[in-house]
Amino acid sequence: MFDTLSDRFDGIFKRLRGKGRLTESDVDEVLREIRTALLEADVNVAVARRVVERIREQAVGVTLSQALDPSQQVIKIVSNELTNILGGQTLKITYASRPPTVVLMAGLQGSGKTTNSAKLARWFKSQGRHPLLVGADLQRPAAVEQLRVLGRQIDVPVFSEPGDPVSTAARGLAEARRLGRDVLIVDTAGRLAIDADMMTQVRQISEAIQPDYTFLVIDAMTGQDAVSVAEAFHQTLAIDGVILSKLDGDARGGAALSVKEVIGRPIAFASTGEKLDAFEQFHPDRMAGRILGMGDVLTLIEQAEQAFEKDSAAEAAQRMMDGEFTLDDFLDQMQQLKKMGPLSGLLGMMPGMPKELKGAKIDDDDLKPIEAIIRSMTAQERRKPEIINGSRRNRIAAGSGTSVGEINRLVKQFSEMQKMMKRMGGMSMGKKGKKKMPMMPGGLGGLKGAMQGGLPAGLPEGFPDMPFNKR
Amino acid sequence: MPTIYLVLIAVAIVFGVSVLLISRKRAVGPADRSPAITVPGAPGPIPTTPAAVAEPAVVAEPAVVAEPAAGTDEGIEIFERPRFRDRMSKSRAVLAGVFSGVRSRSGITAETWDDLEEALLRADVGVRVTDELLNGLRARVASKEIADPEALLAALQADMIGRLSANERALRFEPGEPDEPNVWLFVGVNGVGKTTTIGKVGAQQRQLGRSVLMAAGDTFRAAAAEQLGTWAQRSGSELVRGSEGGDPSAVIFDGIESASARHIDLVLADTAGRLHNKTNLMEELRKVRRVAAKGRGRVTEVLLVIDATTGQNGLAQARQFGEVTEVTGVVLTKLDGSAKGGIVFAIETELGLPVKLVGLGESIGDLVEFDPTEFIEALFSE
């Protein structure tokens, strides 16, 4: 839907090419694009202005080196700046010397407090702690019931009683002491930031239980309002950290940046799915790329790791690089790919994808005819597609319910793909590639470096032979 | 090392497959396969299917909205309609300062434009709509049509109202055979207030003298059916629920059949919140929509519930849900917070979806029909 920042830069930098140095007015133009990108990602207007000013200081006078793409240089500056804002000190949980460690959950209605209370409890459990959940949201019908169900799912006890939320929270604390639970998580009622009564109530709860940590749950889809919400809660409660919920949507999540910048408290956790284990500590570097619309390679890698069978993938990759990748491998990998989720979602996460692909609507059902074609081939044909002649083509077309033209296209595309893979293989192996992927020790770590700032090491340039580039 | 393999594989395969699919699509042409396929990179909004836009029922048979029956008066008495101005006080506080700054200058200066831009952006109107609004005004200022700040603000206000004025906003209820209930389906992402909205709509419809059945199609979220049950009890509505984790289509279908058998006027169907980029969940919803139309009832509204604090992602939500479920209108909840709900401009103008209801508070009567003029006046007033 949105152009990525690098797309925006393309036009500008085409004109700048050949210049040795960015002038003030060049920088202005670039900064305007950066500002628009930030605003489209829902970064708060005032925060965007401050960020852009800081980037200006760094960008003026940047020497444009001939070797490096100037737009990538600027993107790197922007991305580093965002990462700095989002990162900084991370929240380290120090457990109270006299248990339980008390955690208070606050946030707007529908931001995901109840679900994230349970997710946090599960996280504490995975750290070897013994949490107790307290349902102090007596406002929303069945909120406590929801917490109880979630508590059962993660095998964490839930305490609640009807009546007054403040005394319920206090009783919960006593209950935790009695049961010897070492972490107490108190879920509170959602509220609108302006509601004075409700803000008073949550402050009273806070005073009653004296939390060690107060977390503010913020919806990643929140717009400009995130800042006023965060400020209001911070004034009332002194927030220690933020939990960013619904990060598995396609919102750019500029709210995270705004909140961090305004209240100066770290984003501690991010909720990345509906399942209770979809909850992790926050990665500032990924978020920076996401806000700028530069794809989320690291998440892609993680999904790949979960979905692909490592051995067969490694084998296939080896064959791919040697140019021995067959249609059988292709079919096999396509099956695994489907496990990673819908194709269109994957495309969105890949950085440096050409526009034609990014904007494309791809339905997973479109894969079916391709599968049918390959399945209608003999083993020999799959290994060596070049033997497919006219009569074989007719047979395959009849067998798969497609046309001869489609088979031709598949075979042609496949051979293009083979070439491309071979080249990528050469590149990453460092045989003769101009841009080596720094991938030595630690695998993922090295890659993280390479991908930082969403710079896809030579990816878009790596596919010059693909047909749509010729159009 | 294996990680590198995986990345290579993933990148190559995703890329390869996509290229293959796109070149196939190009070659096969538009006559083939699903109608939703658009030319990649085409500018502008993705058109929804024709069915989503066409509203034949309105023309053919005037929809009965507020029945001038005995029950109505009673309803009005109980739900005193809140004013946008009162409930959106916090929104105003943020913008009012900007507008008074604009008014205090003797002429229209560069700062004036900066102030207006900032105000619109802070209201979540979005970069594109803001640019469109301000560029139009700049031209009129340049041609001396608008000369002073007061006239500029008035023109902006009029333009903004103009952008929201085109649509039919009343909830559509078509009286039919007693065994053909109207069905209103509620969809949206997680946590926007679907269940609460159903509860309030149900209570209001009961006040209008209609019998209501609530179908607890949210079988995913823990205790969602209990929450809806509480609302059903409060409003004197029937409730049909399935087992947790069950098939939502089946629950809603059962609800409609049951309403038909018992001659209930209106079925309010809840669905589980889902993020619009989750293909499998959206497919589930597509099925819900399809199945809802199969029973004895008629689906006369598909309402997308959006949280007023939502930023630019709201447009993506409206687009996806619109494509999958033929959304007929939007419910904007939680407008009484400090949120300003500016995303409705993009949703209405780019997708042509009318905002039908807004939530201005916690009580049942606080869910009211959207009034663009009042909404914008509330944003502008000091």
Instruction: Please tally the β strands of chain B and state the result.
Output: 8
CATH architecture of the largest domain in chain A: 3-Layer(aba) Sandwich
* Arithmetic mean pLDDT of chain A: 77
Under the CATH scheme, which class of the largest domain in chain A? Alpha Beta
Cα distance spanning the termini of chain B: 63 Å
And the CATH topology of the largest domain in chain A?
Rossmann fold
* Sheet of most strands of chain B: 8 strands, mixed
**Average of per-residue pLDDT values of chain B:** 80
Largest sheet of chain A: 8 strands, mixed
State the low-pLDDT regions of chain B, or none. 29-77
The SSE string of chain B, one letter per element, is HHHHHHHHHEHEHEHEHEHEHEEH
Brief summary:
The complex is a heterodimer of chains A (471) and B (382). Chain A is of the alpha/beta class and 471 residues long.
What are the main properties of this structure?
A: 471 residues, alpha/beta, Four Helix Bundle (Hemerythrin (Met), subunit A), Rossmann fold, 8-stranded mixed beta sheet, disordered C terminus, B: 382 residues, 16 helices, globular, hydrolase (chain B), membrane (chain B), cytoplasm (chain B), SR_rcpt_FtsY (chain B), GTPase activity (chain B)
